[in-house]
Amino acid sequence: MALSSFVYLSDVENLSDARYAAGMGVDLLGFRLDPHDESSLSSEQFQEIAEWISGIKIVGEFGRASSKEVEKLLKAYKVDYILVEDAHLVQAFSMLGIPLILKLKVHMDDHIKATLNYCSGQVDFFLLESDKDLLEDSDVEVLRQISHGFPIILGYGITDENAAKIACDLHLRGISLKGSPELRPGYKDFDELADILEALEID
Question: How many angstroms separate the first and last alpha carbons of the chain?
Fold first, then answer.
């Protein structure tokens, strides 16, 4: 299975999401491993899921944990990327020797460029999320400006109707979607995720 866009599925908390995403050709799977969040996966739960997938890079989503906390956790969680949520912590996390993804909750305006420039060269991807559900025309214009100079993964405003077009037209590095809880053990509703990934399938 191949997709027309690079896809990062974040907030994966069950084997159903992980196996489905792997089968669909998703590039990155992110797991919530925040030591301050009771809903995060334990090392045992993480390992049980990780051993069922292969060929996909794993992102450790450690929330607001410090680099020292994460350094200790890396003994139990083997990850390919670390998701950082504070631009001011990027330098400290870069010392761990694992590629970084910086998640930014953004308002698409000129201020975002300063943050991107500040961290440029220190992270592999910038994941842009927003409190808004829709991608507005003003957002699109800013994305057109910044995507040529920075590896942007867009994490909001994506639907099955625009998914195939948006990454290409805006020259994004990729898009990001979110996992969801199981309705009950072993049973998932993949409708929304499936619609988007199927729209990205290459014949």
Answer: 9
Structural domain including 76 reads 7-200
In a domain, 117, yes or no: yes
**For position 139, what pLDDT does the model report?**
87
Beta bridge mates, 60: 31, 82
The number of helices, as runs of H, and strands, as runs of E, in the chain is 8, 8
- The answer as to whether 2 is a domain residue is no
The two three-digit tokens of residue 108, written as one number: 């698409």
Q: What tokens appear for 27 in the block?
A: 């590039």
Distance CA 143, CA 137 (A): 10
8 A C-beta contact, residue 144 and residue 180: no
Structure token digits, residue 169 = 């037209």
* Residue 1: inside a domain: no
Contact indicator for 35, 62 with CB cutoff of 8 Å: yes
What would the two tokens of residue 154 be? 């867009």
Total of domains in the chain: 1
As averages over each run of 10 residues, the pLDDT of the chain (203 residues) reads 91 90 95 92 93 92 94 95 95 97 80 89 95 86 90 94 90 92 53 88 83
CATH code of the domain covering residue 154? 3.20.20.70
Pairing of strands 28-32, 7-12: parallel
> Which string of DSSP letters, residue by residue, matches 66-114?
-HHHHHHHTTT---SEEEE--GGGHHHHHTT-S-EEEEEE--SSTHHHH
